[in-house]
Amino acid sequence: MMPILLSNTYKQRILIARHANTFDKGEQLLRVGAKTNLPLSVSGKEQAVRLGQMLAQFDMKIDKVWVSNLVRTQQTANIALETAKFNLTPIITSVLDEVDYGVDEGQPETKVIARLGKEALLAWEQDSIVPAGWNIDVATIVANLHNLINNIQERDVLIVTSNGIARFLPQVLNLKIAKTELKLNTAALGCASLHTTWDLDFWNKSELG
Fold first, then answer.
1. Per DSSP, what are the bridge partners of residue 58?
2. Whole-structure pTM over 0.85, yes or no?
3. Which of 16, 83, 167, 209 lies 20 to 30 Å (CA to CA) from residue 58?
């Protein structure tokens, strides 16, 4: 398998991964946030292996890994790191914990859409407008992520988090991503490199090669 070559003239590089699946095909999809600590499903574990295979393709050495308190991020990172043969122990930080979906926590997606409407969910996904009934402080999330990023000393790092947090990292790094493309798929990767400013290498990559 040929390595994926990226520019080597950078100061730091951050890989951002969303955790793998917590539901398998045919299961009812629930709105899973910070208060629902589900493990990976069977398909999720398979996705985490593929994520590790993708990590192994990059011509780089990951120096440090951060995950959230949620088992789904920890399992994703551990399986991927083992697959890629990176001997690293992820660091747990609450900064990467998923957002709190409030009254919609643990509810079927169909019920969430019926309560809020598609426009309210789209406003959240694209413009970070928090729907009624959710307990999310956007300013605090962004400030905490800024602090995490600004204190990174290592050259190459991996962050494994959930979609509600990952979607703010392009804003924190000032990356140019269309708001319609912010959402990371499960077990997908984004990558940014610091030169004079942070530059986007890719976003939402989930295929080998």
1. 4
2. yes
3. 167
**Residue 205: CB atoms within 10 Å:** 18
13, β-bridge pairs: 156, 193
Length of the chain counted residue by residue: 209
Sheet holding 91-92, edge to edge: 91-92, 64-67, 156-161, 12-18, 189-194, 198-205
For residue 138, what are the CA distances in angstroms to 49, 89, 126, 130, 189?
A: 32, 29, 13, 8, 22
Domains along the chain with CATH numbers: 12-26+41-100+136-205 (3.40.50.1240)
Residue indicated by tokens 């859409």: 113
Q: Residue 58 in contact with residue 51, Cβ under 8 Å?
A: no
| 194 exposure class (CB count in 10 Å sphere: 0-12, 13-18, 19+) | middle
Percent of the chain topping pLDDT 70: 97
Residue among 182, 177, 166, 181 nearest 199 (CA):
177
Q: Is residue 83 classed as helix, strand or coil in its secondary structure?
A: helix
Q: Within a 10 A sphere around the Cβ of 1, how many other Cβ atoms? A: 8
Each residue's pLDDT tens digit, 128-169: 999 999 999 999 999 999 999 999 999 999 999 999 999 999
